[in-house]
Write a structure and sequence with these properties.
By secondary structure, this protein is mainly beta. It is built from four helices and 20 strands. Helices cover 9% and strands 35% of the residues. The strands form five sheets. A six-stranded antiparallel β-sheet has the order 1-18-16-20-14-13, with no helix packed on it. A six-stranded antiparallel β-sheet has the order 2-3-4-11-6-9, with no helix packed on it. A three-stranded antiparallel β-sheet has the order 8-7-10, with no helix packed on it. The N and C termini lie close together (9 Å).
Length: 288
Amino acid sequence: MSANRINEPLELVPQFATAVWGGRRFARLPGAPVDAPVAEVWLASDLPHRPTPVAYGPHQGKLIREALGGDQFPLLLKLIDARTSLSVQVHPDDARAQKRGYARGKTEAWAVIAAEPGSRIYAGLKAGTDAVALSAAIAENRIEEVLHSFEPQVGDLVYLPAGTVHALGGGITIFEVQQSCDMTYRFWDWGRPREIHIAEALECTNYGGPVRPLRGEPVVSPYFELHVHRGPVTFGGDGRMRVLVAHDGAVRGCVDVPAETAVIVPAMNGECRLMPDPGAWLFECIIP
C-alpha cells in the first residue's frame, strides 16, 4: 500500500453494527441505533457492506479507497461491546482466504478497555490439544473444556494470528484491529441457533497452544502494530502510515482525534506530539 497517496490526515465517520450479544455502552454516540444493542462501532473500514467515509476536507464523503487513489485499505478497526459471549470461532490465513477468492486472511489483536469481574477471554487451545482431541470435544458438545481462557485485566493486549481458536466472553469491551477481512468460521455459539462451520473451521485451525495476554508491550505482527497510550506520545519520522483512534476522550496535538473516532495519518518525515485528554485512550495502529 502506498503511504504517499494522501498528504493530510483523514478523519472517518464511524458506522454501527447491531447484534443480539451487544450492549449499550456505545448507544450514546451520535448516529448510534437507539432501539437495538450496539455490538460494534466500525471506526475504519474499507469493506463494501460497511465502509467508513471521510468526514471532511477535500476528500469529504469519499470512501477510504477513493481517498487513497484506489488502493485497498488493509485494516479494519472496531470498538466491540460484548454483553454476552461471542461465538467460538477461527479465521483463515492469507493462503486459505485467497483460495476462496478473498484478498487476505484475518489476523487480529484486541485491547481490553473494560472487563467485568469473572469475565473470560478464550484464546487458543489448552496445551496438548490436537486435531483428534478438538474434534472429539466438538462432537461431544464440550468444546469449552479444551479452550484456554483467562480473566482479562483492563489494558491487556491479545494477539490472535489467523488460525487461533478464540471467543470474546460477555461483560468485556475491546478495541480491535484486524486485517480487512470478514471471514469467520464458527465452532460453537453457546447454544444460539446460528450457522456453524465445523469442517471449514477445523481446516483453518492451528494447534499452537494457549495465547497469553501481553502486558506492558505492544502487538507486533506482519500486518500491523498496535500500541496503546494513556499519556503524551511522540511518533513519526519512520515513513509509515498510521491510524489513530481516541476513546473516552479526545487526543490533541499535531493531529486532533475526536473521541470514538479514527484518523488515518500519512507517513510523516518529522516527529508528531500528541496529548490525550485525562483518562482517554489513544490506540496507534501502524501499517508496515
